[in-house]
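Hi there,

I know you've been waiting on this one. I reran it after we fixed the sequence typo, so this is the corrected version. Both the input and the resulting structure follow.
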Amino acid sequence: MRILDESAKGLTLERMGLWGDSLEVIHRSIKRPNGMILVTGPTGSGKTTTLYTILDILNTPEVNISTIEDPIEYQMPRINQTQVNPKVGMTFAIGLRALLRQDPDIIMVGEIRDKETIQIALNASMTGHLVLSTLHTNSAAAAIPRMVDMQAEKFLIASTVSVIVAQRLVRKICPDCRKEYKLSKEQLEDFKKNVNLEELDKVIEKSNLPEMKNIKKIEDVTFYKGSGCDRCGGEGYKGRVGIYEVLEVTEAIQKAILANSTANEIERVAKSEGMYDMMTDGIIKAIQGTTTIEEILRVTKE
Protein backbone atom coordinates (compact mmCIF):
# COMPACT_ATOMS: atom_id res chain seq x y z
CA MET A 1 0.00 0.00 0.00
CA ARG A 2 1.27 3.45 -0.86
CA ILE A 3 0.10 6.38 1.27
CA LEU A 4 0.51 9.75 -0.40
CA ASP A 5 0.32 13.14 1.25
CA GLU A 6 -2.01 15.30 -0.87
CA SER A 7 -0.46 18.42 0.67
CA ALA A 8 2.91 17.41 -0.81
CA LYS A 9 1.79 18.93 -4.11
CA GLY A 10 3.03 22.42 -4.86
CA LEU A 11 6.63 21.24 -4.74
CA THR A 12 9.13 23.01 -6.96
CA LEU A 13 11.98 21.41 -8.91
CA GLU A 14 14.43 23.37 -6.72
CA ARG A 15 12.91 22.06 -3.48
CA MET A 16 13.12 18.52 -4.86
CA GLY A 17 16.89 18.89 -5.20
CA LEU A 18 17.51 20.03 -8.77
CA TRP A 19 20.02 22.86 -9.25
CA GLY A 20 22.46 24.46 -11.69
CA ASP A 21 22.72 23.24 -15.28
CA SER A 22 20.42 20.25 -14.63
CA LEU A 23 17.60 22.58 -13.59
CA GLU A 24 18.18 24.83 -16.62
CA VAL A 25 18.09 21.85 -19.01
CA ILE A 26 14.71 20.72 -17.62
CA HIS A 27 13.23 24.24 -17.74
CA ARG A 28 14.46 24.59 -21.34
CA SER A 29 12.92 21.25 -22.35
CA ILE A 30 9.51 21.85 -20.78
CA LYS A 31 9.17 25.17 -22.62
CA ARG A 32 9.34 23.37 -25.95
CA PRO A 33 6.00 22.73 -27.70
CA ASN A 34 6.89 19.13 -28.53
CA GLY A 35 9.34 16.35 -27.70
CA MET A 36 9.62 13.74 -24.97
CA ILE A 37 10.80 14.07 -21.36
CA LEU A 38 11.59 10.79 -19.62
CA VAL A 39 12.13 10.19 -15.91
CA THR A 40 13.81 6.90 -14.98
CA GLY A 41 14.62 5.03 -11.80
CA PRO A 42 13.45 2.06 -9.71
CA THR A 43 10.03 1.86 -8.01
CA GLY A 44 9.67 4.40 -5.20
CA SER A 45 12.38 6.76 -6.45
CA GLY A 46 10.01 9.73 -6.84
CA LYS A 47 9.54 9.61 -10.64
CA THR A 48 5.80 10.37 -10.53
CA THR A 49 6.33 13.28 -8.12
CA THR A 50 8.86 14.77 -10.56
CA LEU A 51 6.34 14.45 -13.43
CA TYR A 52 3.53 16.00 -11.36
CA THR A 53 5.83 18.89 -10.40
CA ILE A 54 6.59 19.52 -14.10
CA LEU A 55 2.85 19.30 -14.90
CA ASP A 56 2.15 21.79 -12.12
CA ILE A 57 4.56 24.27 -13.78
CA LEU A 58 2.91 23.71 -17.20
CA ASN A 59 -0.68 23.70 -15.91
CA THR A 60 -2.10 26.99 -17.21
CA PRO A 61 -5.61 27.58 -18.63
CA GLU A 62 -4.21 28.01 -22.16
CA VAL A 63 -2.98 24.41 -22.52
CA ASN A 64 -4.86 21.13 -22.75
CA ILE A 65 -3.13 18.53 -20.54
CA SER A 66 -4.20 14.86 -20.49
CA THR A 67 -2.74 11.96 -18.53
CA ILE A 68 -3.06 8.20 -18.56
CA GLU A 69 -1.95 6.67 -15.26
CA ASP A 70 -1.89 3.51 -13.20
CA PRO A 71 -3.03 4.53 -10.61
CA ILE A 72 -3.91 8.25 -10.51
CA GLU A 73 -1.77 9.31 -7.55
CA TYR A 74 -2.70 12.99 -7.19
CA GLN A 75 -5.86 14.75 -8.35
CA MET A 76 -4.93 17.86 -10.32
CA PRO A 77 -7.33 20.66 -11.30
CA ARG A 78 -7.73 21.47 -15.04
CA ILE A 79 -6.02 18.21 -16.09
CA ASN A 80 -7.90 15.34 -17.77
CA GLN A 81 -6.69 12.27 -15.85
CA THR A 82 -7.49 8.74 -17.03
CA GLN A 83 -7.02 5.53 -15.07
CA VAL A 84 -5.68 2.39 -16.78
CA ASN A 85 -7.94 -0.66 -16.45
CA PRO A 86 -6.60 -3.74 -18.31
CA LYS A 87 -9.68 -5.83 -17.27
CA VAL A 88 -11.84 -3.83 -19.64
CA GLY A 89 -9.08 -3.46 -22.26
CA MET A 90 -8.04 0.04 -21.18
CA THR A 91 -4.26 -0.27 -21.46
CA PHE A 92 -1.65 2.50 -21.71
CA ALA A 93 -1.46 2.04 -25.51
CA ILE A 94 -5.24 2.08 -26.10
CA GLY A 95 -5.77 5.00 -23.69
CA LEU A 96 -2.96 6.96 -25.34
CA ARG A 97 -4.50 6.41 -28.79
CA ALA A 98 -7.86 7.69 -27.53
CA LEU A 99 -6.23 10.74 -25.88
CA LEU A 100 -4.57 11.79 -29.13
CA ARG A 101 -8.00 12.26 -30.73
CA GLN A 102 -8.85 14.87 -28.07
CA ASP A 103 -6.18 17.31 -29.30
CA PRO A 104 -4.06 17.59 -26.12
CA ASP A 105 -0.99 19.87 -26.03
CA ILE A 106 0.74 17.93 -23.25
CA ILE A 107 0.38 14.21 -22.50
CA MET A 108 1.63 12.37 -19.43
CA VAL A 109 1.91 8.57 -19.74
CA GLY A 110 2.35 6.99 -16.29
CA GLU A 111 4.81 4.39 -17.53
CA ILE A 112 6.16 3.05 -20.81
CA ARG A 113 6.05 -0.73 -20.51
CA ASP A 114 5.80 -2.14 -24.03
CA LYS A 115 6.55 -1.75 -27.71
CA GLU A 116 3.12 -0.37 -28.64
CA THR A 117 3.13 2.37 -25.96
CA ILE A 118 6.64 3.58 -26.82
CA GLN A 119 5.80 3.77 -30.53
CA ILE A 120 2.60 5.77 -29.99
CA ALA A 121 4.34 8.06 -27.46
CA LEU A 122 7.28 8.74 -29.81
CA ASN A 123 4.93 9.43 -32.74
CA ALA A 124 2.86 11.77 -30.54
CA SER A 125 5.95 13.76 -29.55
CA MET A 126 6.97 13.85 -33.23
CA THR A 127 3.60 15.34 -34.26
CA GLY A 128 3.56 18.39 -32.02
CA HIS A 129 2.81 17.10 -28.50
CA LEU A 130 4.94 17.39 -25.38
CA VAL A 131 5.03 13.87 -23.89
CA LEU A 132 6.13 13.12 -20.30
CA SER A 133 6.66 9.57 -19.12
CA THR A 134 8.66 7.17 -16.91
CA LEU A 135 10.83 4.12 -17.58
CA HIS A 136 12.43 1.58 -15.27
CA THR A 137 16.19 1.86 -15.84
CA ASN A 138 19.09 2.46 -13.45
CA SER A 139 20.69 5.41 -15.22
CA ALA A 140 19.70 8.11 -17.70
CA ALA A 141 21.90 6.70 -20.49
CA ALA A 142 20.46 3.17 -20.02
CA ALA A 143 17.01 4.46 -21.06
CA ILE A 144 18.12 4.66 -24.70
CA PRO A 145 19.14 0.97 -25.18
CA ARG A 146 15.98 0.06 -23.21
CA MET A 147 13.82 1.88 -25.79
CA VAL A 148 15.74 0.21 -28.63
CA ASP A 149 14.99 -3.16 -26.92
CA MET A 150 11.31 -2.22 -27.10
CA GLN A 151 11.82 -1.93 -30.89
CA ALA A 152 11.64 1.86 -31.01
CA GLU A 153 13.33 3.28 -34.10
CA LYS A 154 16.70 4.89 -33.29
CA PHE A 155 16.06 7.90 -35.55
CA LEU A 156 12.73 8.50 -33.72
CA ILE A 157 14.43 8.34 -30.30
CA ALA A 158 17.18 10.72 -31.47
CA SER A 159 14.79 13.27 -32.95
CA THR A 160 12.03 13.29 -30.30
CA VAL A 161 13.54 12.65 -26.83
CA SER A 162 14.77 15.98 -25.46
CA VAL A 163 15.85 15.08 -21.91
CA ILE A 164 16.19 11.98 -19.70
CA VAL A 165 16.25 12.41 -15.93
CA ALA A 166 17.44 9.53 -13.69
CA GLN A 167 16.76 9.86 -9.98
CA ARG A 168 16.86 8.28 -6.52
CA LEU A 169 15.60 9.49 -3.14
CA VAL A 170 17.96 9.95 -0.18
CA ARG A 171 17.11 10.79 3.42
CA LYS A 172 17.85 14.34 4.60
CA ILE A 173 19.82 14.99 7.78
CA CYS A 174 17.60 16.07 10.67
CA PRO A 175 18.23 19.85 11.09
CA ASP A 176 17.72 19.63 14.87
CA CYS A 177 20.63 17.27 15.58
CA ARG A 178 22.95 17.92 12.64
CA LYS A 179 26.64 18.01 13.53
CA GLU A 180 29.90 18.41 11.60
CA TYR A 181 32.64 15.80 11.20
CA LYS A 182 35.72 15.13 9.08
CA LEU A 183 36.35 11.82 7.27
CA SER A 184 38.75 9.44 9.04
CA LYS A 185 41.67 7.89 7.09
CA GLU A 186 39.72 4.65 6.49
CA GLN A 187 36.57 6.53 5.41
CA LEU A 188 38.69 8.69 3.11
CA GLU A 189 40.20 5.62 1.42
CA ASP A 190 36.75 4.06 1.00
CA PHE A 191 35.43 7.37 -0.35
CA LYS A 192 38.23 7.60 -2.94
CA LYS A 193 37.52 4.02 -4.10
CA ASN A 194 33.83 4.72 -4.70
CA VAL A 195 33.83 8.26 -6.05
CA ASN A 196 35.23 9.65 -9.30
CA LEU A 197 37.27 12.48 -7.73
CA GLU A 198 38.25 13.99 -11.07
CA GLU A 199 34.61 14.44 -12.05
CA LEU A 200 33.73 15.74 -8.59
CA ASP A 201 36.50 18.37 -8.78
CA LYS A 202 35.19 19.61 -12.16
CA VAL A 203 31.63 19.95 -10.84
CA ILE A 204 32.79 21.70 -7.64
CA GLU A 205 34.86 24.14 -9.72
CA LYS A 206 31.95 24.89 -12.07
CA SER A 207 29.15 24.92 -9.47
CA ASN A 208 29.38 28.51 -8.11
CA LEU A 209 27.77 27.25 -4.89
CA PRO A 210 28.88 29.25 -1.80
CA GLU A 211 29.73 26.04 0.13
CA MET A 212 32.18 24.99 -2.60
CA LYS A 213 34.27 28.16 -2.81
CA ASN A 214 37.09 27.25 -0.42
CA ILE A 215 37.35 23.55 -1.23
CA LYS A 216 40.78 22.64 -2.58
CA LYS A 217 40.84 18.90 -1.83
CA ILE A 218 38.42 16.36 -0.40
CA GLU A 219 40.44 16.04 2.85
CA ASP A 220 39.42 19.64 3.72
CA VAL A 221 35.70 19.01 3.37
CA THR A 222 33.46 19.16 6.43
CA PHE A 223 30.64 16.62 6.19
CA TYR A 224 27.53 16.36 8.37
CA LYS A 225 25.41 13.72 10.04
CA GLY A 226 22.50 13.58 12.48
CA SER A 227 23.23 12.35 15.99
CA GLY A 228 19.57 11.38 16.57
CA CYS A 229 17.02 13.30 18.65
CA ASP A 230 13.34 13.23 19.68
CA ARG A 231 12.30 15.18 16.57
CA CYS A 232 13.61 12.49 14.19
CA GLY A 233 12.89 9.49 16.42
CA GLY A 234 16.60 8.93 17.05
CA GLU A 235 17.25 8.26 13.35
CA GLY A 236 19.33 11.33 12.52
CA TYR A 237 17.28 11.77 9.32
CA LYS A 238 14.09 13.66 8.57
CA GLY A 239 12.46 14.01 5.14
CA ARG A 240 13.85 13.08 1.72
CA VAL A 241 15.41 14.81 -1.26
CA GLY A 242 16.24 13.66 -4.79
CA ILE A 243 19.64 13.06 -6.36
CA TYR A 244 19.65 13.33 -10.13
CA GLU A 245 21.48 12.95 -13.39
CA VAL A 246 20.03 14.92 -16.29
CA LEU A 247 20.96 13.86 -19.80
CA GLU A 248 20.11 16.40 -22.49
CA VAL A 249 19.82 14.90 -25.98
CA THR A 250 22.23 17.17 -27.82
CA GLU A 251 23.57 16.72 -31.37
CA ALA A 252 26.46 14.60 -30.06
CA ILE A 253 24.05 12.34 -28.14
CA GLN A 254 21.83 12.04 -31.24
CA LYS A 255 24.86 10.84 -33.23
CA ALA A 256 25.69 8.32 -30.49
CA ILE A 257 22.09 6.98 -30.56
CA LEU A 258 22.13 6.61 -34.36
CA ALA A 259 25.53 4.86 -34.13
CA ASN A 260 23.91 2.22 -31.85
CA SER A 261 26.17 3.16 -28.91
CA THR A 262 25.95 1.32 -25.58
CA ALA A 263 24.69 3.02 -22.40
CA ASN A 264 28.31 3.48 -21.21
CA GLU A 265 29.34 5.18 -24.46
CA ILE A 266 26.31 7.50 -24.35
CA GLU A 267 27.12 8.34 -20.71
CA ARG A 268 30.73 9.16 -21.66
CA VAL A 269 29.54 11.56 -24.39
CA ALA A 270 27.05 13.20 -21.96
CA LYS A 271 29.73 13.65 -19.29
CA SER A 272 32.10 15.20 -21.82
CA GLU A 273 29.30 17.75 -22.46
CA GLY A 274 28.91 18.61 -18.77
CA MET A 275 26.47 16.04 -17.35
CA TYR A 276 27.30 14.80 -13.84
CA ASP A 277 26.04 11.49 -12.47
CA MET A 278 23.83 10.81 -9.45
CA MET A 279 26.80 9.94 -7.25
CA THR A 280 28.42 13.34 -7.92
CA ASP A 281 25.12 15.17 -7.39
CA GLY A 282 24.72 13.30 -4.11
CA ILE A 283 28.26 14.15 -2.90
CA ILE A 284 27.58 17.84 -3.62
CA LYS A 285 24.43 17.58 -1.45
CA ALA A 286 26.48 15.85 1.28
CA ILE A 287 29.05 18.71 1.19
CA GLN A 288 26.14 21.18 1.48
CA GLY A 289 24.96 19.34 4.60
CA THR A 290 21.67 18.08 3.11
CA THR A 291 22.41 14.35 3.37
CA THR A 292 25.20 11.96 4.40
CA ILE A 293 27.93 10.15 2.46
CA GLU A 294 26.52 6.82 3.77
CA GLU A 295 23.09 7.60 2.26
CA ILE A 296 24.59 8.44 -1.15
CA LEU A 297 26.69 5.26 -1.25
CA ARG A 298 23.73 3.14 -0.08
CA VAL A 299 21.41 4.44 -2.77
CA THR A 300 23.82 4.62 -5.72
CA LYS A 301 25.34 1.19 -5.08
CA GLU A 302 21.97 -0.59 -5.18
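Quick highlight: The chain has a mean pLDDT of 92.

Best,
R. S.
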